[in-house]
Specification:
It contains twelve helices and 19 strands.
Length: 492
């Protein structure tokens, strides 16, 4: 068992590595609207000047270091009519030029305690025409609702140009795709001339096809998807062969759609109702397990009305499910440890007798065989934990990426952010479990050293993950206590 903590730490560390676009412009936005999970920046004219996504809840937004999914590109060579901000609107393929712009920001209650949405509206006057842009930033979501209306109606386009970060080589390593109607097929942009998909189901720009970060645009009202590099339309030639410009277009002067800007991760997409596009994202083995856990978690929460209590009950249910499989292995380890303890005097005699390491190893193995001891049991003791790895990683992914709407549990203020007190309690429970399962002092010291190596990782986990681990560890302590009370087999 002394290697189990080390192996588990490596597995979770690998599962937790999140890649993303590099940091962007350090200049703060003119107008910043924050949710619990991200911040959207706007210009005074209504374009999106930043979409800042911290890797973890509770991290402060730092312009220039926090990932920015909606960068401006004023550093590009100047061209007439060149859009360089997300949210640029074209009217008849020409940049909208406002005579005056007014904006208003208001909080809209959603019915949940402390969960007001932020709604910002920009009204642009252009002669006899009025362009109204409304963005709704939800409190606990990466999704923003967008409404664009031109009065009187004319053909309009909403653009997302140039990639996902200002320091990234534009268009390189990005996945640009437009979903066919129904969302079951897609067209990928791989350079060259652009194209249009009528009645598009989604438009997406991602740092990877199956992972990373994504900007996902989903029409609510009928719209066409547009992607271009050499030219956007016949009337507006931007001559940018490796800088894709994509967006949504409507001939009615009205565009209503949702923008999801965040991790391309299935649990996160499900939590925001963005997981119904098979062409955009499909679950792998771990993803399907995580979705099953999320479904069970959501069902349990509807009964107990508490995310924290739901996590506790789901964890207990899982530990009871694997209890019969873990008990025999834990008992075998106990028997092997007791036998090894009895052989200590004879092992010390062998060490004094044989100075050659090879001879000592041979004599030691003969002694083990004589007394029916399997040294490999120290490694196979990890088997119960190894068998749980797929589920453990799925639990970790589900709780790490699920949004618990700011709900706490007991003294925990928010299950989505780390909690130091909970981490300390978990460490204490883990040490107690080691003490119960290990009789050899030297082995216990080695386990403690391995644990210390992962203290930083432990304290960076969201409280939901730590709550799961604490309850699981307490169940493990109970099971170890039961096993320790079982009588040892009598020697023949």
């Amino acid at each position: 068992m002394k290697y189990c903590t080390f192996l588990l730490g490596l597995a979770l560390l690998a599962a937790g590595c999140v890649g993303g676009p590099p940091p962007g412009d350090p200049t703060p936005p003119d107008i910043a609207v924050s949710s619990a999970v991200h911040q959207v920046g706007f210009t005074t004219s209504g374009e999106i000047s930043g979409w800042y996504v911290p890797l973890q809840r509770g991290q402060a937004i730092k312009y220039g270091s926090t990932f920015n999914l909606a960068p401006a590109r004023p550093d590009l060579p100047s061209q007439p009519g060149l859009p360089y901000r997300v949210g640029t609107v074209l009217i008849h393929s020409q940049l909208a030029s406002c005579d005056s712009v007014q904006h208003q920001l208001e909080a809209v209650p959603t019915g949940d305690d402390g969960a007001d949405d932020q709604v910002i509206t920009f009204v642009c006057t252009m002669g006899q025409s009025t362009l109204t842009r409304t963005y709704t930033v939800h409190r606990y979501a990466h999704t923003v609702d967008v409404s664009i209306q031109l009065d009187p109606p004319q053909p309009i386009q909403f653009l997302w140009p140039f990639g996902l970060a200002t320091s990234q080589v534009p268009g390189r390593g990005l996945v640009v795709e437009l979903g066919e109607p129904g969302g079951r097929a897609k067209q990928l942009f791989e350079g060259g001339r652009g194209f249009t998909v009528r009645d598009v189901s989604y438009v997406a720009l991602s740092t990877g096809e199956h992972s990373g970060f994504t900007a996902l645009l989903r029409p609510i009202t009928p719209a066409d998807g547009v992607v271009a590099s050499e030219q956007l339309t016949a009337e507006a030639n931007f001559n940018l062969p490796d800088r894709p410009i994509l967006g949504l277009a409507s001939d009615t002067g009205v565009l209503r759609f949702k923008i999801y800007g965040g991790p391309k991760e299935l649990v996160r997409l499900r939590a925001e109702h963005q997981d119904d596009l098979p062409a955009f994202f499909q679950a792998n083995f771990f993803g399907n397990i995580a979705l099953g856990i999320v479904a069970a978690l959501e069902w349990t929460k509807t009964i107990v009305s508490s995310w924290g209590l739901a996590i506790v009950l789901i964890t207990i249910a899982f530990r009871l499910l694997v209890w019969p499989f873990m008990t025999p292995q834990m008992r075998t380890m106990k028997v092997q440890a007791a036998a090894m303890q009895q052989l200590k005097p004879e092992l010390e005699k062998l060490k004094k007798k044989y100075k050659d390491q090879r001879e000592l190893n041979r004599a030691t193995m003969e002694l083990y065989q004589k007394h029916g001891i399997n040294p490999a049991a120290q490694l196979t003791g990890c088997l119960p934990l190894v068998l749980q790895y797929p589920v453990l990683i799925a639990f970790w992914g589900a709780f790490r990426n699920y949004e618990f709407a700011g709900q706490g549990f007991l003294w925990i203020g928010d299950l989505a952010v780390p909690n130091i007190v909970l981490g300390i309690i978990y460490l204490g429970a883990m040490v107690l479990q080691m003490r119960l399962s290990t009789t050899d002092r030297k082995m216990l010291q080695q386990q403690l050293i391995f644990t210390i190596m992962f203290i930083y990782l432990i304290f960076s986990f969201p409280a939901a993950v730590m709550l799961y681990w604490l309850v699981s560890t307490l169940m493990g302590i109970l099971q170890q206590w039961v096993v320790n009370r079982m009588p040892l087999p009598q020697p023949a």
